[in-house]
Each structure stands twice: as structure tokens, then as C-alpha cells.
Specification:
The chain is of the alpha/beta class. The chain is built from 15 helices and 11 strands. The structure holds ligand V47. The site of ligand V47 has 21 residues, from strand 6 and strand 7.
Length: 372
């Protein structure tokens, strides 16, 4: 961190003192951090908080993503990935055999995470997903299965006419160990219905995450930013995640997702068009690190941020880069210009060139080996 005088000049002295003492920041502090013109000062505080938790470690995972379908009943306005029906141009739904073929094709990678998410398909029953998890688990007993956002869980429950807790119990019995954090978008009740009126609302998203935690299933959490939301709505979103974490404790990682506008039906006001700019992305990573004092990891998801911003984000509070990925559709259908996958060597060198030490982890953030 810089000398206290420096933070005094930027109007960050009281936040500096709280961060130094490890005290919780409040909503107003979050707003001050978003509005402070000196992004280096904000970043230095986040770096301090990040290094206190993780030293110079930067984590990555050898993983593969599977997007099993993009057919989705939710019709979220921002989403360029979804198709409304199987017959629409560009719609796809993989079979279990398609998924197994994708897994076999990367057997040399020795995956430590299989990340499975998709649209809320109108007719795939819960038994299809239980069967998928069981078949994968029997072929790959040591591969941690990270699958289904709280939004998909809500959808399965609605389709089956059972509770979300029952859905989670059944999926856990089939091999689910971890859940990704998608679908949180932005919680604000005024804005959420404009973006995703048919999807699980903020209360349900948080409740389902809490239910997963109560069953011992760790989950991640996200925020989609850089669209119509205000800075107040971002800070409010972070505060709600922190409150849920106080209650249920099972969030492992927070992932800020910058809105990518290509092929999206969400049209931003003229002044806001174009990609969320890099400094806003870095600042959002930093504010998240500082506000989310009870969530251990902040992920710089290189698919959506791009590799260079993700690398820089390690200096702004992020400690994780996600992983090898192999194949990704949600960001790429929205115009992400990142590669579709990275090698272990590329991830490690990205981390080393940023001045951090690569640490390989699995889906639940257990350290596997260290490249130090
Ligand atoms: O829920 C959709 C977002 C999410 C766009 O938990 C968009 O480890 C930007 O949650 N521009 C899915 N973002 C991705 C996700 C995720 C990714 C990697 C790791 C983890 C994890 C979670 O992507 C969606 C939505 O919030 N999204 N459309 C878009 N146009």
C-alpha cells in the first residue's frame, strides 16, 4: 500500500484504515471506491487484501466446459447464446454420447474440473441430468463435477414439480460436488425484470445458493456489469452476496462478468456503447475484492475479460484465472475475442509474467501442485 497521506489526498483515508485493520467496508465505502478518480489507489488497497489472503499465489484449473444446450425458456435480453427453440438457427442440444466424446477427446489433459452449464431447456427432464452425472462419474471417478447454476436448479424444480432442495439432493446423489455462479446477473428488483424477467429472481437465486451450501455443495457467484446498471446497483449486488455468505458460507469464488454486447438484443444508450472499458473492469474486480471480505477467491475470467485484462486484474485483487476451458460458447457467441482454450503452459506463463506464482487447483479450490 502507499503512505497514508496518499490515501488522504484521494479521499480514501478511512477506507485505507479499515482495510489495514481488516475491518468490513460498508455500502458507502463501496460507492467511494467506485467514484475515486485514482484507480491506482483503489487497486493498491485491493492488492493488499488479495495478498493478505493468498500471498503471491495465482490459481488456475485444468478444466473443460460443456455447454449442453443453448435452447432456453428464459429469453434474457442480454444473452446472445440462447435460442428459443430447437428449430432456431444456431440452436444445439448435445446428447450424453456427444458429451462423453468431448471428454474422451481431452483425456490427455487430466482434468481437475468438468464445468457443465446450459440453457433452461423446455423438456430435458431431471433424470437426463442425473444419468449424465452418473455416467461421467462412473467413467471418471476422480473428476470433480461442477454443474448447473441456481437458475438451472430453479428450472428443473419447476419442470418436475418438486422443491429446489429435492433437486439439489438428487443431483448431489448423482455426483454433483460444486456449482458455477452464473445467473446472478444484477439483483436489483427494479432492473432485473428488464434484463431477465423470466429467470429465477434475486431472492430465489440467493436462497438456492444457500440450500446448496446447506448440503455441503460449494458454489460460486457472479455479477454481470457494464449494461444498464448503476454503480449503486453494483455495490448493492456485492452487499447481498456478502450477506448471503454470512448466512450460508459456501461461496468459494466471485466472478465479475463484463457485458459483451455483440449479437445481444440489449441495446445500450449511445454513450455507453462499445466494450466495458478496461479500467472499469479492473476497478470492479478491485471493489469486489475489498467488499467481499468473506469470499475467498476473486476470478479474472479470461474468456470474458480477455487475457491481457485478466493478467492485469491479478494486480487489482483477483487471485484466480479459471482454466484451460477448451470450448466455450456463452462469451464467444456474444463477441468475446479471446481464444476458446488455453494450455497449462500458457496459463502458467501468463501468471509468471505478471509477477505471481501459478498454483494448480481443482474445482473446489483444493491446491494440487505448485509451480513455484
Ligand atoms: O450467467 C451471458 C453471463 C454467465 C453474457 O462459476 C454474459 O466458475 C457477458 O457464470 N456478456 C455464464 N456475460 C458464465 C458464468 C461462469 C463462467 C465461468 C466460470 C464460472 C464459475 C461461471 O455469463 C451467465 C451470464 O451472467 N453472460 N451473456 C454477455 N453477453
Amino acid at each position: 500500500m502507499f503512505a497514508p497521506d496518499y490515501y488522504n489526498i484521494c479521499g480514501l483515508l478511512s477506507i485505507y484504515e479499515k482495510v489495514k485493520a481488516g475491518e468490513r467496508l460498508d455500502f458507502e465505502d463501496g460507492m467511494v471506491l467506485f467514484n475515486c478518480p485514482d484507480i491506482a489507489a483503489v487497486g493498491s488497497l485491493a492488492l493488499h487484501a488479495r495478498c493478505r489472503l493468498h500471498g503471491d499465489a495465482a490459481f488456475y484449473v485444468v478444466n473443460r466446459q460443456i455447454n449442453y444446450t443453448n435452447v432456453c425458456v428464459n429469453r434474457c435480453v442480454f444473452c446472445a447464446f440462447r435460442r428459443d427453440a430447437e428449430s432456431d438457427d444456431g440452436a444445439f442440444t448435445l446428447s450424453v454420447e456427444d458429451i462423453l466424446a468431448r471428454l474422451r477427446a481431452c483425456s490427455l489433459l487430466h482434468l481437475d474440473e468438468l464445468h457443465i452449464v446450459g440453457g433452461c431447456h423446455p423438456s430435458l427432464p431431471l433424470s437426463w441430468f442425473e444419468n449424465l452425472l452418473r455416467i461421467v462419474r462412473s467413467g471418471y471417478p476422480d473428476l470433480p463435477l461442477k454443474a448447473f447454476t441456481p437458475v438451472e436448479i430453479a428450472h428443473f424444480a419447476r419442470l418436475e414439480g418438486i422443491s429446489t432442495l429435492q433437486v439439489l439432493r438428487r443431483l448431489k446423489a448423482a455426483g454433483l460436488v460444486m456449482m458455477p455462479g452464473g445467473g446472478a446477473e444484477i439483483f436489483d428488483e427494479g432492473l432485473r425484470p428488464q434484463l431477465c424477467p423470466h429467470k429465477a429472481d434475486a431472492k430465489d437465486w440467493l436462497r438456492i445458493s444457500g440450500e446448496a451450501h446447506s448440503l455441503g455443495i460449494k458454489t460460486n457467484c457472479t455479477m454481470l456489469f457494464g449494461h444498464l446498471e448503476s454503480l449503486e446497483q453494483r455495490v448493492d449486488h456485492l452487499c447481498r452476496l456478502r450477506e448471503q455468505q454470512d448466512r450460508s458460507g459456501g461461496f468459494t469464488c466471485f466472478i465479475p462478468l463484463p457485458f459483451l454486447s455483440e449479437n445481444s438484443a440489449l441495446k445500450l444508450p449511445e454513450a455507453q456503447r462499445g466494450p466495458v472499458h478496461g479500467l472499469d473492469q479492473l476497478r470492479t474486480v478491485a471493489v469486489a475484492r475489498l467488499m467481499l471480505d468473506n469470499i475467498p477467491h476473486i476470478k479474472a475470467y479470461w474468456i470474458m475479460l480477455g487475457a491481457k485484462t485478466a493478467q492485469t486484474a491479478l494486480w487489482y485483487g483477483a487471485d484466480d484465472l479459471d482454466g484451460t476451458i477448451v470450448e466455450e460458447h456463452i462469451g464467444h457467441m456474444a463477441g468475446a475475442d479471446s481464444a476458446s482454450g488455453m494450455t497449462i503452459r500458457e496459463l502458467e506463463s501468463m501468471i509468471r509474467l505478471s509477477g505471481f506464482s501459478p498454483v494448480r487447483r481443482n474445482a473446489v479450490f483444493e491446491t494440487l501442485e505448485s509451480g513455484r
